[in-house]
Amino acid sequence: MYNLTYEAVNWNQSASSLAKIFWDQQWKQMWFPEEIAVSKDIQQWRNFEHQETYKKVFGGLTLLDTIQTNIGMNEIAKYNPNLQEKAVLTVFGAFEAIHAKSYSYIFTTLCHNDEIEEIFQWVKKNQLLQYKTSKIANIYSSIKENDLVSLWKAMFASVMLESFLFYSGFFYPLYLGGQGILRNSAEVISLILRDESIHGVAVGIFAQNIFNQFSKEQQDELKNWGYELLLDLYDNELRYTDEIYRGTGLEDEVKAYIRYNGNKALMNLGFDTMFPEEEIHPIVMNGIRNEGSTYDFFSQKGSTYALAKVEPITDETFHFDILLDD
Amino acid sequence: MKSYLTLNNEILNHYHQTGKIDLEKDREATRQYFIEHVNQKMRKFSSLEEKIRFFIEEGYYEKEFLQKYSFEFINKIFDIAYSYRFRFQTFMSASKFFESYAMKSRDGKEILETYEDRMSIIALYLANGDELLAEKAIRAMMEAFQPATPTTLNSGKKARGELVSCFKLSMDDSMNSIAENLGYCLELSRLGGGVGVNLTDLRPLGDPIKGIANRASGVMPVAKLLENAFSYSNQLGQRNGSGVAYLNIFHADIEEFISSKKPNADEKIRLQTLSTGVIIPDIFFELMKKDEDIVLFSPYDIYREYGKRMSEISITEMYGELLNNPNIRKLKQINARKLYTEIKKSQFESGYPFEIFDDNVNKQHPLKKLGRVKMSNLCTEILQVQQTSIINDQDTPNEYGLDVSCNLGSLDIHHATKFHDFEELVDTAMRLLTQVSLMTNIKNVPSVKKANQMMHSVGLGVMNLHGHLVTQNILYGSKESIEFIDYFMEALNFFSLKASMLLAKEKGETFYGFEISEYANGHYFEKYVNKLEKEPSELVKKALGNVPIITKEMWRKLKEDVMKYGLFNAYRLAIAPTGSISYVRSCTASIAPITERVEIRDYADSRTIYPMPFLNNDNQHLYVEAYDMNVYKIIDLYVAAQKHVDQGISMTLYVTDKWTTEQLAKAYIYAWMRGIKTVYYVRQRLQSLEECVACTI
């Protein structure tokens, strides 16, 4: 093994045009679930009508983020030959772990131990949930050394998970939070969403860089494979939605949202959209825009503060001539 | 699903998709809100008489103040209120009013008051039997004056909180004082108050106690105690108490204090809900300019050596002396630029600490002979003298000093320019605020009670500046906008002085310490009686509407009157950040620029979409968002206003994540150089990922 040459990651070279941007953006968004006072939701939770749906939504999200940490980001990072992208993906993986833990944080705050246990059992038994998870996980596990096709497929699957499959779950806390119901849990979700949207875009772009190296025939073949995977997952999502949202009357709204995000995922991958445009519930749409909303400083943390860019104060800092001109 | 919430959300959705404002959606949301919610829950009365009787008999209103008027007069006040045919301009203002201000039945099921009812009751309550004042008050409030939230919320109610809700306390370097002040903090947060506490006089970590070295725990554990005290008392779960701790930048614990707000600080010292503020004397900026180190001191040494607390001396004046005195320990030496960079880092990451420019505050302080202004409050607009209480052991009575309760109200600039008589408007506002002072009795905090009785301090401010500028076709930050606020605030200052002088004349009483103030010797008026008189531009003249331009001659006359009759209020003006109150009145906040044309407001438990007042598809370009403005122009505008304000102005700085700590430092240094007294939050807008990818690809 002594003939292996190890290469150090060199951030001075622009190996991947966007890796540094994704790296910076992700770190700027650093957060921990403990910063949000989910306990303020307890009172509302006690009288909340659709507890079962809410718990299942979070159970499902936990599972997706768990495989994304344990398998997804790790596998893709492992086989991605670009050292900078590898670093970015590793950081993404760390954030996925924070996300998976965040759902637990919400569970622990709102639910009793036996309820939590029950939900984790439900996760293991629910066939639709297990179906989509194993579908994605299998693609992750099939990446082969020096095989760009299998790597690209894993990236495609990852974007499906981050930009598409999460949203059947995200819908509910956003929908409720926008109406002032379980606001603080929704705040956690909006922070997670902020991360997931970077992950989707980043992995999508990394995937596009690989995709462009393929021949036309290969591309067509992979495109077919991709759309087929999406349709298969979509079909499963429809049934999953019917099952967990039963009784809330929200099924159609959720499905529209799933299609909307399916299109987004395809766009991240540089593919044409496949679902027609349709109206999404405005409260849910506004829930995603977490840049710059005005926070009450006395209550929620707010997702608008981020790490500082440090530069030293110099003599120049005290000069104002230019400024006073206009 | 409530259809009005959906409608309200559609405005933003539509705006983001098309860039167009669809105000019809918001109007429809407001209509639906009344149909689905307000009208359903509103208790109906057959007559005003029945309504008032119900309120008194059921114990909702205090009866004493109502009994001071005839029923005919009460009826007249309500008639005046209803004659305005008031309509909520936005869904935000309607929902904010009915959720937060209108009286509800005890079980919360019925709404008992309309907007007009609430305003009438405030007028009758504060006028306290004075019919002339009550009539002026209802007109002022229906048009252009709004008392602060606690007064608006609580006036006239039998089961009520206090009329004021913001306080400043000074803590002394003794266990008695720490314990006593913690008690005050509990009491004041029970009243829903925001409390500022100055920790500058506490000895730092590792200082001696009773001569034994390395015993003191420093300011951080006290800050933690305060934080816990504030979150313990939470208004029956409605809102946590809130507070801010201030510390002088030359205090030996300053580094721990600054790091305490960073999200990744050690949990033992991390302050989650307590706000922080740093007091910065000129000498710090001077040393920083020369790239020198600063030396940190202990208030314990200062008190032993000079018999004065650290907060009672000007560090700028004493710095050389402190350095040369061998009995003053030089506890730590740090590079000023590095320390200031740390402060900027914390501000990026958390918005804190606030900054108080100590010498800018005290140089311009009209009561400087009475004592120093040592700190500010939770919103950094209150700047009043304080004297530390001596808290003795239980067998000896305490010697109470002076602390502060803030008693605030705001004029809506847009409607103030339209009010038929600006002088009357300001006079009425000052009288109403003075009434609040006279009716307030914070008996559990004797230093606050004492100061209120002796000083009658109030804080009249303004809001809706940006909104008004948009209606006048003036860009925020432009030369005209600065000229406008300059003239407006000068007139406000003038008439508030006049009102306070008239109150003193009528009552034959001046505030404590008037004789040694800069008002009594006339110094305060120098800048006005010697000013360069000039005509404002046509645009500004039109924007000023009915607000008169104050001449030198008017100032000369007022100076004479003030020197002769005195003033009733020790402090008069302060510009608060105006949150909820400006939403109810459909105003833009304070004199601040807007942050978003269509704002998403997350307030405690709800999310509401708020299109800015007067916004339509033709004037969007005038509503430049704060983050897109030149920060130096914003500061210039505040400088123009600050010249005419005896206390402070809440000034938030707006940055994007493209900014570096150095750029932020530069903006603060500029503010300091221009004489700004305080800086409130730093607010940051994160670039979204699409934006940053878009500019790279």
From TrEMBL, chain A:
One of its GO terms (biological process) is deoxyribonucleotide biosynthetic process. The active site is at 103. Fe cation 2 binds at residues 96, 162, 196, 199. Its cofactor is Fe cation. Its EC number is 1.17.4.1. GO terms for cellular component: ribonucleoside-diphosphate reductase complex. Gene3D superfamilies: Ribonucleotide Reductase, subunit A. This is Ribonucleoside-diphosphate reductase subunit beta.
UniProtKB/TrEMBL annotation, chain B:
GO terms for cellular component: ribonucleoside-diphosphate reductase complex. Its EC number is 1.17.4.1. GO terms for molecular function: ATP binding; ribonucleoside-diphosphate reductase activity, thioredoxin disulfide as acceptor. The keyword Cell membrane does not apply. It catalyses: a 2'-deoxyribonucleoside 5'-diphosphate + [thioredoxin]-disulfide + H2O = a ribonucleoside 5'-diphosphate + [thioredoxin]-dithiol. It comes from the Bacteria. Belongs to the ribonucleoside diphosphate reductase large chain family. This is Ribonucleoside-diphosphate reductase. It comes from Ureibacillus thermosphaericus.
